[in-house]
Amino acid sequence: MMNNKEKVLDAILSQGMLPLFFYEDAEVSVEIIRTMYSAGVRVVEYTNRGKEALSNFYSIKQTLATELPDMFLGIGTIKTGLEAEAFVAAGADFILSPIVDTEVALVADTYNKLYIPGCMTPTEIHVAQQYKARLIKIFPANILGPAFISSIRELFPGQLFIPTGGVEIEAGNIAEWFRSGACAVGMGGKLITRNVLDKRLYSQLFNDTLKALELVQLSK
């Protein structure tokens, strides 16, 4: 029987895409997740990028527990052990970082949470592997490009990579990432745009999410 860490990893790999966002308004944040859920999403990253992030995360988790109990919600942009502890207490199913941090890795290990650190160099990937990172975020993906993963994947056989930052909802772009060796792609501002958030464009988000999921499945 899979533990929670394995279930989250399996959900990300199966979905092939990890949507990520932050918004100041908790109700809008919930509605964004409801919309993506209705399009087929079962795992989402909420990012720690504003003073409302922790209180929003807590209220989102409360809503999901009753409405969408099979939705995994992780917290991203975690850079310290204290942040990790606070969001684990708020119910985070997994933890992502833009960096490799010892304290965050230890908190994740203590609570048996999937830890996805962000790496930009082979050295960082090596360090992340010392913390048993099953899945590593290649960040910022728009700077590194698919060729980076193609170039380093043979150095780290069996390592799972998820590029994040600048991945486009475009067949050629998504296919190129998967061809390079990615097992999934992180999709933030190209999917959940500021315009969608500010103008509550839920039907647009629904359609874009369907398209992104379809392109991912065709590319895997």
UniProtKB/TrEMBL annotation:
Per the record, the pathway is: Carbohydrate acid metabolism
Q: Which Gene Ontology molecular function entries are recorded, alphabetically?
A: lyase activity
Q: Which domain of life is it from?
A: Bacteria
One Pfam annotation reads: Aldolase
Give the keywords, sorted.
Answer: Carbohydrate metabolism, Lyase
Q: Carries keyword Nucleus? A: no
Q: Which residues form a coiled coil?
A: none
* InterPro entries found in the cross-reference section: Aldlse_KDPG_KHG (IPR000887), Aldolase_TIM (IPR013785)
Q: Which CDD domains match?
A: KDPG_aldolase (cd00452)
Query: What do we know about how this protein assembles, alone or with others?
Result: Homotrimer.
Q: Its family?
A: Belongs to the KHG/KDPG aldolase family.
Name under which the protein is recorded: Bifunctional 4-hydroxy-2-oxoglutarate aldolase/2-dehydro-3-deoxy-phosphogluconate aldolase
Species source reads Mucilaginibacter terrigena
